[in-house]
Amino acid sequence: MPTTQILGTGLAVPDRIVTNDDLAKLIDTSDEWITQRTGIRQRHWVVEGESGTGLSKIASERAIAAAGIAPDEIEAIIYATSSPDHFAPGNGVFLQREMGLGHIPAIDIRTQCSGFVYGLSIADAYIRAGIYRTLLVVGAEVQSTGMDVSDRGRNTAVIFADGAGAAVVRAHDDPSGSAILGWDLHGDGAFAEKLWVDAPGSIYHPRNQAEHFDNKSFLEMDGKEVFRHATTRMPESVRAAMAQAGVTAEQLTLLIPHQANLRISEMVQKQLGLRDDQVYNNIDRYGNTTAGTIPIALDECVRAGRLKRGDLLAITAFGSGFLWGSAIIRW
Ligand code: COA
Questions:
Q1: How does DSSP assign 35-104, residue by residue?
Q2: What share of residues in the chain are helix, strand, coil (percent, to 5)?
Q3: CB under 6 Å to ligand 1: residues?
Q4: Parts of the chain with a pLDDT under 50
Q5: Which phi-psi region, left, alpha or beta, contains residue 219 (left: φ > 0; alpha: ψ -120 to 50)?
Q6: What span, in angstroms and rounded, lies between the C-alpha atoms of 329 and 228?
Q7: CA-to-CA distance for 269 and 267, rounded, in angstroms?
Q8: CA distance 157 to 26
Q9: Which residues are registered as beta bridge partners of 106?
Q10: How remote is the CA of residue 2 from the centroid of ligand 1, in Å?
């Protein structure tokens, strides 16, 4: 049975940088508050004319170049985003069209912050089932256009940001080589409204209502509840994936946690007993790009030489749903 190898990665963020001080000019907040509570110093936000599809095209082209393959070798796209360019269709087909990838399937998944972990699990299942051998997995978001950039929305506006990451994954035929060694995926809809965007939604008649614009269409978050669950679920899930993979925390070369909040990452690290050099964080520069955080961080680690073939990588995510999950990857 083939295993799954991540062959090449890429990232793209908008050029526009929004610092904490920039936000403090718009809303009642401060660089000190944001840095202390979240670890974020700046983030990238789109300007008019930029899109999730556009960012993911750049990230995907970089991933394809890094993989050293031709674009027409891609057999399927798995595109994770909670902030698609349009209500329907999803961004997968727009990416396919913009990249001229031919009539390949494009699957959009909506598992928010856990999007890349879930997307990779689907790619792995296709590869191991022998259905496709080369896939493009994308995690990308444009969150800034859905933020309430006012005092009312200050608990989310300072956290969420825009960016895209992509990975070319390919079937690998050496059983002792690259592989996804263990998976752990979960969901708990009891907490769906703790981190959500209520409208537009088909539950409303009609779906689009002017009055929703100001009270239901922004991302809403119960920060304390998210914090409490994230710091429990991520370590629990990494442990479950490590058990499946037959790997211990000491053996991990690197953990890339979803960049929700630096304090969450630090608590996950502590609970797993990992050293600083075993954990990668870049939230200070990018904020929380939801499905984008893990592939963006992964691309930075690969290009900086933090991962070499044979190393053991853990990825873990938690977010809206609540949905969470982890994977152990032999790089
Ligand atoms: N700037 C300044 N003050 C802010 C603020 C901001 N951006 N956002 C909230 N506050 C204020 C609140 O209004 C509150 O003021 P009050 O005490 O006068 O009512 C105070 O700060 C504390 O708010 P609270 O929500 O209790 O803060 P907290 O300690 O829980 O920290 C978070 C808020 C969002 C940083 C924290 O809950 C958190 O990190 N949660 C996890 C969020 C996350 O990771 N989300 C992504 C999931 S994928």
A1: HHHH---EEE---TT--HHHHHHHHHHHHHHHHT--GGG--EEEEE-SS-SSSSS-HHHHHHHHHT--S-
A2: 40, 25, 35
A3: 29, 33-34, 37-38, 113, 154-155, 158-159, 221, 223-224, 226-227, 260-261, 264, 288, 319
A4: none
A5: beta
A6: 27
A7: 5
A8: 10
A9: 77
A10: 46
The first and second tokens of residue 244, run together, are 């499946």
The pLDDT tens digits of the residues spanning 34-72 come to 999 999 999 999 999 999 999 999 999 999 999 999 999
Q: What angle do CA 313, 37, 198 make, to 5 degrees?
A: 85
CA atoms in the 13 A half-sphere facing the CB of 218? 18
Strand bridging mode 3-12 / 163-172? antiparallel
From the candidates 44, 113, 172, 261, give the one annotated as an active-site residue.
113
pLDDT at 175: 84
Angle at CA of residue 239, ends 235 and 242, nearest 5°: 135
* 228-268 confidence digits (pLDDT tens): 999 999 999 999 999 999 999 999 999 999 999 999 999 99
Among 179, 164, 90, 170, which residue's Cα sits nearest to residue 135? 170
- In angstroms and rounded to an integer, the radius of gyration of the C-alpha atoms of the chain is 19
- Helix (H) / strand (E) containing 330: strand 323-330
Q: Which residues contact 192 (CB under 8 A, 6 or more apart)?
A: 320, 321, 322
Q: Cα 135 vs. chain centroid, distance in angstroms?
A: 17
Q: Which domains does the chain have, with CATH numbers?
A: 3-172 (3.40.47.10), 179-330 (3.40.47.10)
Q: Which of 172, 229, 288, 301 is catalytic?
A: 288
Q: What pTM does this model have? A: 0.98
Mention every residue, 6+ apart, whose C-beta is less than 8 A from residue 247.
181, 182, 312, 328
320: Cβ contacts below 8 Å, ≥ 6 apart? 82, 112, 113, 192, 195, 196
Nearest to 314 by CA among 240, 231, 226: 240
Q: Give dist(CA 212, CA 219) in Å, integer.
A: 12
Tell me if residue 205 is catalytic.
no
